[in-house]
Amino acid sequence: MKTMIKNMLTATGAGLIAMAIILPASAQRMRHRPPMGGGTTFHQPVPHPQPPRPAPHPQPHPQPAPHPVPHPVPPPPPPHPYPYHPYPYHPPVVINNFWGVHPYAWHPYYPYNWGYYWHPIGWFTATLATTAVIVAVVDSSTSQKTDYYYDGGVFYSKTDGGYVAVAAPVGAEIKSLPQGYTTVAVDKKTYYYYGGTFFQSKGDSYKVVKAPEGAVVKNLPQGAQEVDVKDSKLLEYQGTYYQPIMQNGEDAYEVVKVE
Predict the structure, then answer these.
(1) Angle of CA points 26, 30, 33, to nearest 5°
(2) Are the C-beta atoms of residues 149 and 156 closer than 8 Å to each other?
């Protein structure tokens, strides 16, 4: 009996000693154990002091942009010494009457341009294209021969420093008609009109002829001048007189006879 009691006391003492050793360790582990259900540890971060925010700088109010000061426009450059020779002036001719086939119908005159290669009378150029050809014309009254230069429907005469566009000389012959010509029929005869000039077929060439009376054309070139005849206005171009008419609802001009 005594032995049994002694053994029980010994076992109880050993258990108390073990508990004294285990409980502090468990308590130490419990301090570092995270809470149930996850999450962070119980240690809260120590807040660091924040520096004071700088005071906002006042923003300047936008100023309206100043109005630009207009710069003076420079004067245009002086013209070329010879870009264009003025169209020769013809003194007014007194005309008492005129006759035409179509009724007179006045409309404004607007000079027409036949394209890049066409130039009005008086236009000057220092050089001609390589396609220019020499056309010799003999005056029937004096038998004097004059050389002209022809290119693109325009006749030129040689002058100081270059060439100047002139009226097509009557009697001059060319091998082909310029691009943009129109066909005109008068008294069952066919004429070809281009740039204020009338041509007529002659064999394998085309000859410059006088404007036939009664011929109707749609356009007149630069250089035509208005002439007052009674209560009407005619247009004179290189000695030929045209009356304004209407043909098929369009403005046109008819070569008329004057006296």
Answers:
(1) 135
(2) yes
CA–CA separation, 10 vs 13, rounded Å?
5
Tens digit of each residue's pLDDT (9 = 90 or more) over 77-118: 444 444 444 444 445 445 557 888 899 999 999 999 999 999
β-bridge mates for residue 246, sequence order = 251
Residue in 215, 251, 255, 257 with CA at minimum distance from that of residue 110: 251
Residue 148 and residue 156 in contact, taking contact as beta carbons nearer than 8 Å = yes
Strand partners, 136: 147
Phi-psi region of 232 (alpha: psi -120 to 50; beta: other; left: phi over 0): beta
Report the alpha-carbon distance of residue 229 to residue 133 in Å, rounded: 41
CA distance 106 to 103: 10
Contact 87, 122 (CB under 8 A): yes
C-alpha closest to that of 200 among 112, 211, 119: 211
Q: What does the pLDDT look like over 131-143, one tens digit per residue?
A: 999 999 998 888 8
Rounded to an integer, what distance in angstroms lies between the CA atom of residue 7 and that of residue 13?
Answer: 10
pTM: 0.64
Angle at 124 between CA 120 and CA 127, to 5 degrees: 120
- For residue 49, the one-letter residue type is P
- On the CB side of 255, how many CA atoms lie within 13 Å of its CA? 19
Asked whether 234 and 256 are in contact (CB, 8 A), the reply is: yes
Q: Tabulate helix, strand, coil % of the chain (nearest 5).
A: 10, 35, 55
**Residue 87 dihedral angles phi and psi, to the nearest 5°:** -60, 135
